[in-house]
TrEMBL record:
The active site is a redox-active disulfide bond. The lineage of its organism: Bacteria, Pseudomonadati, Pseudomonadota, Alphaproteobacteria, Acetobacterales. The keyword Cell inner membrane does not apply. The chain holds residues 119 to 583 of 583 of the full protein. The gene is lpdA. Its EC number is 1.8.1.4. Its cofactor is FAD; (R)-lipoate. Belongs to the class-I pyridine nucleotide-disulfide oxidoreductase family. This is Dihydrolipoyl dehydrogenase. One of its GO terms (cellular component) is transferase complex. GO terms for molecular function: dihydrolipoyl dehydrogenase (NADH) activity; flavin adenine dinucleotide binding. It catalyses: N(6)-[(R)-dihydrolipoyl]-L-lysyl-[protein] + NAD(+) = N(6)-[(R)-lipoyl]-L-lysyl-[protein] + NADH + H(+). GO terms for biological process: 2-oxoglutarate metabolic process; cellular respiration.
Amino acid sequence: APSDTDFDVIVIGAGPGGYVCAIRAAQLGFKVACVEKRETLGGTCLNVGCIPSKALLQSTEDYHGAAHDFAREGIIIEGIKVDLAKMQANKQGVVDANTKGIEFLFKKNGVTWLKGFGKVTAPYTIDVAGKSYKAKHIIVASGSESSPLPGVEIDEKVIVSSTGALELPAIPKRLLVIGGGVIGLELGSVWGRLGAAVTVVEFFDRIAPGMDGEVAKTFQKILAKQGFKFKLSHKVTKVEKTASGVNVTIEKVDGSGTEVIETDIVLVCVGRRAVSKSLGLEEIGVALDERGRVKVDEHYATNVAGLYAIGDVIAGPMLAHKAEEEGVALAEILAGQAGHVNYGAIPGVVYTWPEVAGVGKTEEDLKAEGAEYKVGKFPFTANGRARAMGCTDGFVKVLADKKTDKLLGAHIIGPDAGTLIAELTMALEFGASAEDVARTCHAHPTLSEAVKEAALDADGRAIHI
Ligand code: FAD
């Protein structure tokens, strides 16, 4: 008879990769356990990532609208103020509801939560809290953590990672963000909207690396209008705590000058790295790549029999939905089905205001490939709904093959870009042409008409510009 230490599948880590994989594997009839060392399920995403950051982005957007934008519509609010403790409590409530939700789903699907730290001790064998478990398939979904910046010690009080930046007990007057990537810009927006003067220091000469260049330029201009200061092509050489805050020394990348910036809080957001060194993987011979990520084949198998990996701990974009797709695909592969992830159609979204979203190839990708492509573009200034919302910043851009009209990529900066990109992701997934999108009837007046018009513009026949 099967014992309580024998499973078909044991997943290490209950983030979006791990918990989704565990649930899908259970649906497919496997006996499944999921190991998680945190007090709550949901991983980085639900506890200290996507969900709490979106809760704070929502609250601060609401506040900023009420304080600065409503008056334009004739809504006058006097004496508006922020109760930060309540805002933080609301955020925690959102997180708790989500993490409890995963606990419920585990129970519903018969997934056993093995509480504690998991260490792989031999193929098919894992140790959790002093007890040994066996499984036919062990799946590493241990995720990622903030990359440190050499010489800068995070205290999560004045020098913080994204985790500390989600927990600040008071609104800083000045916030310096090291790293102009997605997470830094989102958290900079949170505190900027509440009144902090935000400075972003970025090594490269542009923000949001990987994003379509034209979109990134517009994004930077819009953020600058909101009060962000950017120090591009600069590196941080020293971070020093003082009696009144922190002094940050920055140096131009070309070595042409240094500057000291005084700030109250420093947010270190220089990327994330795989959590792969503490689980006993190297000891049993699992191969890692040069960045410490677990190496897998196209079926998520490592070089050790019975051991697989998914999510942030393997190569690819560090995104919750990418991890989830891999979790489902792997569970299905283990069940003999044809699980598969289309890496060419994974959307990326920045949840600032306005939002920024992209899927497929950027113009820079296409130029590098020497591809022949055409561009269709439509500004939100020409969209009736965006005007009614008072959100006319930004545009939709579609990239299609010059000869075949096949959609190659799509990029949106504007209101609700993260929701609008879903349609274009579906189009890309189905191998649609720009013409297919252009011929689809879109409801009026909606922001999605800008998507249709951009697709029409790829053929030079947009109506409203
Ligand atoms: P994780 O979510 O990191 O989960 C791994 C889990 O494994 C953790 O809970 C960890 O405790 C556990 N674990 C690790 N080792 C062990 C062990 N040995 N034993 C037991 N347990 C272990 N992505 C988006 O798509 N959209 C967003 O809006 C977004 N916002 C973000 C905002 C912030 C501030 C941050 C930091 C990240 C954000 N991300 C976002 C990224 C997203 O959180 C990650 O891509 C996602 O969580 C990766 O999922 P995962 O399952 O691979 O790993």
